[in-house]
Amino acid sequence: MPFRPAVYFDRRYLEEPPMRQQQPYALPALPPQADTLTIHFLTLFMHEFQRQKLGDANLRIYTAIEQTAGKTGSAPEVVARALVESGLRAARESFPHKFVQTVEHNAGTPRWNVKSATQQQRELLVFWRARAPANVRDYRRAYHYH
Predict the structure, then answer these.
(1) Residues of 113-140 as b/e, b for ≥16 C-beta within 10 angstroms?
(2) Bridge partners for 89 per DSSP
(3) Helix, strand, or coil here: 142?
(4) What is the pLDDT of residue 63?
(5) Continuous H helices in 8-56
(6) Angle between helix 119-130 and helix 97-107 axes, rounded to 10 deg
(7) In the 3-class helix/strand/coil scheme, how is 54-88 assigned residue by residue?
(8) Residue range 5-15, pLDDT digits in tens
(9) 56-100, pLDDT tens digit by residue?
């Protein structure tokens, strides 16, 4: 009688797992020198984000921003700005419309201007443009020729 091991071994466990798709968002992290309001926004946002059971990530982020703004009594644009400054990267649909307009408008101003976009907001624009479909022209982008 041939020897049979008690536990059967499956070769599929040796193969590397298939590559997971890159997530369409990056959640914020607590900056080293964060002020109290930013810490408060981050903790509430992460709590609301984890509490959401919706399937769409964009809707979860948008709802978490709105819920955080409602609980703190702040404007959603202020919450979104604090989260972006802390590292939140997501699609345009994840942010309030006023915030998206402000980021795109401020990105067109020169860097020496006081109202220009911050470095994190410029990185968010690069994130948006990298994930835009190749065959669709971004109609919101302002083309400036200096």
Answers:
(1) eeeebeebbeebbebbeeeeeeeeeeee
(2) 26
(3) coil
(4) 93
(5) 36-51
(6) 100
(7) CCCHHHHHHHHHHHHHHHHCCCHHHHHHHHHHCCC
(8) 554 544 544 44
(9) 888 899 999 999 999 999 999 999 999 999 989 998 888 999 999
